[in-house]
Amino acid sequence: MDNYEQDVFYDTEELTLEQKRNLLEDAHKVCLRWNADVLDCRKSWARETIEISFEDILKKLDEDSHFVFIHRKGFLGASGDPLPGEYQLEIGFRTMRGEPDYYLFIFCDQKKLSKFLTKYHLEKHIR
Known about the structure:
By secondary structure, this protein is an alpha+beta fold. It has 3 helices and 8 strands, in the order ββαββαββββα.
């Protein structure tokens, strides 16, 4: 597939919990959209989107949470422009405490990438 580009993952291991919170707050201020999900395997194997304030979901972030900063890419149209819904930043976390687990997804315009990389000294994850 010539018109497909792989997602780029960034290392966040070196960020402190405070820096992760700050990054999420900065992303929330400029986001296109955000949502929170819950997964309770005692009830279902599917995540469910929940109604929760940003402040309350942010309180669930802790040292054990799995934190991600991803430049989602994907398909380009015939014109060379990104297809709708592709090419954006995804920033968020998953709690790892057990039942239930909470997820936060924040989606931002990819034009904000350099701002985040510079401010939080993020580098591409090498696999």
